Amino acid sequence: MKITYLGTAASEGFPAVFCNCKYCNEARKLKGKNIRTRSQALIDDDLLLDFPQDSYMHFLQNDIQADKIKYLLITHSHMDHFYIEDLAARGSAFAHDMRAETLDAYCGKGTYEKAVAYMSGESRFQFRIHNTGLFQPFKVGDYEVTALPAKHMPGDDARIYIVSKQGKTLLYCNDTGYCFEEVFDYIQRKKIVFDMVSLDCTNVNIPIDDEHGHHMGFPNIQRLLQRLKDIGAITKDTVKYVTHFSHNGNPIQSYLEECATPLGCKVAYDGLQVEF
Ligand SMILES: [Zn+2]
Ligand SMILES: [Zn+2]
Ligand SMILES: [Zn+2]
User: Fold this and answer.
1) Do 5 and 239 contact (CB within 8 A), yes or no?
2) Counting beta carbons within 10 angstroms of the beta carbon of residue 205, is it exposed (0 to 12), middle (13 to 18) or buried (19 or more)?
3) Domain count, the chain
4) What CA–CA distances, in Å, run from 263 to 93, 168, 200, 254, 268?
5) How many Cβ atoms from other residues are within 10 Å of residue 56's Cβ?
6) Over the stretch 68-117, which tens digit does the pLDDT of each residue have?
7) What residues sit around ligand 3, an ion, with C-beta below 5 angstroms?
8) Ligand nearest to the CA of 34
9) Is the dihedral of CA 204, 208, 210, 212 positive or negative?
10) CA distances (Å), 193 to each of 154, 176, 184, in order?
């Protein structure tokens, strides 16, 4: 499996849209890996994870022909993960001869309701949206996907995803705080071993509590990795990445690498491809 990180920032972007803080100004100067857009990833060439407001630029910058993408998994309905307004560009007046017959989008209750209300019976979107349950594996083309509850956006049915294909398994784990007990129970009961984990690191080193926090930083990630190791879900061969950074934590690439390396993690940046 191949994952391409198209965006690696939290909702405000990095540098943040209107921010004049020292970290954002440093990023404006350094550019390169320090410019981070809103979080999105592509698996192989046909499964998209989330649809933020930066999707269009992601497609241009990474030579992605969006009309070929068949599947979209949505984590939750915050705008930096589901910007439905731009899916209207699939409408017949705007998109001709698309090569994927339709775009099938999978999500939880909050996203589904937002989509249905926005589309209000119109067919111009040319995509289908599916409200899927938690802890219930489902097929998406050649992939097997399981949604697990995220500790994020209460009431939205926000989720993290397990994605498997041809014997490889990915845990895509943002946006969320430290995982719920039932997530660990499920992974342990199903004896799932991850080839790659991609983890929410919004807070970087700003403390956030495991029980109530709706994002994570390095200390939470360290505890999460230990827990996953204890239940046999990660091994020494598991590839570990952190992503989804807020400007408040100073997500300059070199600083993040200093923090991530002792945890055995690597730091995602916009445009990075990882094969595992
Ligand atoms: Zn987010
Ligand atoms: Zn800032
Ligand atoms: Zn969010």
Assistant:
1) no
2) middle
3) 1
4) 50, 22, 14, 15, 14
5) 13
6) 999 999 999 999 999 999 988 888 788 999 999 889 999 999 999 999 88
7) 78, 175
8) 2
9) negative
10) 28, 20, 12
Q: Which bound ligand lies closest to the C-alpha atom of 80?
A: 1
Neighbours of ion ligand 2 (CB under 5 A): 16, 19, 21, 24, 247
Question: 76 CA distance to ligand 3 centroid (A)?
Answer: 7
Cβ pair 203, 250 in contact under 8 A: no
**Structure tokens belonging to residue 95:** 């998109």
Residues of the domain holding 151? 2-275
- How far CA 155 is from CA of 58, 77, 100, 109, in Å, comes to 29, 11, 32, 8
In contact, 31 and 253? CB cutoff 8 Å: no
- Which ranges of the chain have pLDDT less than 70? 121-124
pLDDT at residue 92, as a whole number: 79
**How far away, in angstroms, is 92 Cα from ligand 1 center?**
30
Domain of 176, CATH number, reads 3.60.15.10
